[in-house]
Write a structure and sequence with these properties.
This protein is an alpha/beta fold. It has 15 helices and eleven strands. It is globular and about 65 Å long.
Amino acid sequence: MNLKELTIKQAHELLEKREVTSSELTRAHFDEIKKNDGDIHAFLSLAEEEAIESAKKVDARISKGEPIEMLAGIPVAIKDNILIRDIKATAASKILENYTAPYDATVIKKLKEEEAVFVGKTNMDEFAMGSSTENSAFGPTKNPAALDRVPGGSSGGSAAAVKAGFSVYALGSDTGGSIRQPAGFCGVVGFKPSYGAVSRHGLMAMASSLDQIGPITKCVDDAATVFEIIRGVDTLDSTSADREWQSYSDKPVDIEEIKFGVPREYFTHGLDPEIEKNIKSVISKLEKEGAQIEEISLPYSEWALAAYYIIMPAEVSANLARFDGIKYGRSKINKNEKLQNLLNIYLESRGEGFGAEARRRIMLGTYVLSAGYYDAYYAKAQKVRRLIKQDFTHAFKEVDAIITPTSPTTAFKFGEKTHDPLSMYLADIYTVSINLAGVPAISIPIKEVNGLPAGLQIIGNNFEDIKLLKIAKIVEDMSK
């Protein structure tokens, strides 16, 4: 029995049947981390002692014949911008190198109530700014599927941890594709819920109107399991939605009742021909099984990347202003010398603490919000955002789900795009519009291209997350 390959459901059943203990399961994953994470670098910090203690508590409950929750005793990895009380939370930035979280994020509270076992905090692009995990201040993560390739970003460490068998599942955050793109590059499942479906309390804000926490798993069923536990309204997050949710275990969706939209704008120049061929093969299978396929248009998607890279840096510049070396972040204050002035403290602390990509986005955001440029850039980008949202609203009046590539290419090599930030930003071309619109989307693995994983993205209507997951399960089965 290979414990590192278990899904959540499989692990839960083995625990209930007492065929394996949580302690054995947890130690098996730590053994795998010790064996291989030196090459991959998925984790920034580990919590082995705490994890073993948590596992023993679950084992004690099982030995008494007590029922356990679905996630009880199962190892999970957490992206390092999500707070776990008394554990370091660096967001992969030098400015927070020694920061310890004083409280639990709401999603962490929910997982603790399930008695989940926290393995550690995963590597990421600094403050979630990047598409390759090369922007981490503590070194890049490698793709377990091909060590000379990036794992995607910014949740590259979480995707790598699941792919490598370091944890059964993981949590990431998605601002413009940061769950789905690394899931596609690593060959796992990545789900970005509707904006407001999952509380952001305790997630270090990058762009508050775009950020969303979601699961990275080995299959769609596991993504649904985690989502049903972490979703829900939260009084500590005013953007979280109070809604009645369906259950994933309710009646499945009939394939003959599903109408898929295929946007013509997503299948044009720039898309790897092999990825396109493999996606169209899946679409063909769906059609043969009775699904309806319709070509649709999302005309404003052409402007999504430009709008995103104005709105997102603007919010970054505001959210990262708090890391000033006074209340938050490492400080250049030398207590043995008389301070010259407060501005010097800010400049030196932030200049040393932030990496190049974080500084770039702060400057871009400050620029587009400045007098004389706000109307020319930021206000126009918000108008485009509204039009992009309208595109999806109109599309979902005609179709149930939209199929697109997750990324235009497979995982690229290290250093291939770092010299040209614009080429790196283009890696998000199929994902950013979903965050601008606030709708849910999931990436599932399809047939490999030249030995490298590739992803297919399915987009759902706002707050129809469960319907999307049920549809994704059908597509997953067709993709095998």
